[in-house]
Amino acid sequence: MAEYNTKYEYIKIEQSEEFKELKRRKYRFIFPVPLLFIAYYLFFIVMSAYAQDFMAQPLLGNLTTGYIFGISYYLVIWALAFVYVLKARQYDKLVDEIVEKYTDGKGTI
What we know:
Elements: H1 10-14, H2 17-30, H3 32-50, H4 52-55, E1 58-60, E2 63-64, H5 65-102
Helix pairs in contact: 2-5, 3-5
C-alpha cells in the first residue's frame, strides 16, 4: 500500500480547477505534436512512393529533394525537443504555483 505523503493534500490539489486546467493545457500540447510528426513522416513515405520525379530533383549539387527532406527530420526532431523543454518549464512553474497555493510554501498545510 502506498504511503500518503502528509506534506501535500494531493487529492485536494488534483480536484482543484487549476490542476484540471494544467492537465488540459498539457494534453493539448502533448498529443497533437507526435501526431503532426507522424503525418510529416508519412508524407515523406508517400512522396517517395508516388512523387519520385519530384523527390529526385537536384537542389544543391548532388543533393536531391528527397535527401533534403530526409535531413529535415533531424532539424524537426531537435526543434520539437527544444519546444518541449520550454513548455515543460512552463508546466513546472504552474505546478509549483498550484502546490504553493495549497501549502504554506514549506510543505505543510
